[in-house]
Amino acid sequence: MTGHEAGCILCGGMTYEVVSERDRHGAPLCTRLCAGCGLIRNDPVPTADELDAFYASAYRESYKGASTPRLRQVLRNFDRTRQHILAFRDIYGRKGRWLDLGSGSGEFLFLARSMGAEAEGIEPHAGYSAYSRQTLGLPVRSATLDSGGCAPRSFDLIRLSHVLEHMRDPLQTLRRLRDMLRPCGVLYVEVPDIAEEARNRLRGRLFHYGHINNFDPTTLRALAGKAGLAELAATRQRAAGTTGLFLEAVPDLVPDAADLARNAALMRRIMADHAAALLPKPPKGTVVGRFAGRVSDRLREVVAAARLRRPRCIADESARQLRLALAR
User: Fold this and answer.
1) 9 inside domain
2) How far apart are CA 78 and CA 84, in angstroms?
3) Which pLDDT tens digit goes with each residue over 47-96?
4) Does the N-terminal or the C-terminal CB of the chain have fewer CB atoms within 10 Å?
5) 144 lies in a domain?
């Protein structure tokens, strides 16, 4: 493990507040909030060697409890990914050469290639990358961004879905990815929204060793701007208030210090409310209603998984549904 930086990677601030000393499983993990901007990071940050070893063989087991995806997880991921592609069909309809960095169990890659995109993946976890190649027939390398050998100006679209939060230096990661885009290329970044999770999760069930960075909508956009990336005008309204952004290369932007200070105050209140609440306080619906919705979703997944039976059958059916929807 290495100690924290001389200053916050986003605002340069030197003042921090500890918001948690345990991870979601009860193991020791110190997590701090920057008083200057509200960015929440684990401290100390694991070394590169520690992270490489963790993601190659332990992350999926720790986070999902299995070295390959379960059938209902495959079904859920395909459903979510298909809906995402349909919601942004204007962007994904551009085709070209695509990279899915941290491609997981390959749902996005499978659907992208079914649309005609020249898509490839990089996935550090040995079990998931082997599953993607052997079960779904996908071009996925067992590698990381550093070992993947990707050249500058190589891709028309790069996707990081629930990946940036794992990076030791997310600012440098974004700058490197910006340089890997071709002219008019697009970078899609999606991360968990720590503000939303704090409202929706039970007390003490927030933080994870692998989630080094915990972003909210403000800190994610500010970090992207500092890396020379700005939201596409075509998607800005659809993505408002979320932590899923379509970005394009621009000159580096200086974060607004006053806006970040307001965000820090907001995040401080959200963390305090989470620490004090006996039950979650979701911004939409009720705890009981959300639980009932999850039970209903799980039942639908069980029925569908029993009908389709194999991951490749689920993949082929999802691709068929996507093609039909795009043709309407």
Assistant:
1) no
2) 10
3) 988 888 887 766 655 555 566 888 889 999 999 999 999 999 999 998 89
4) C
5) yes
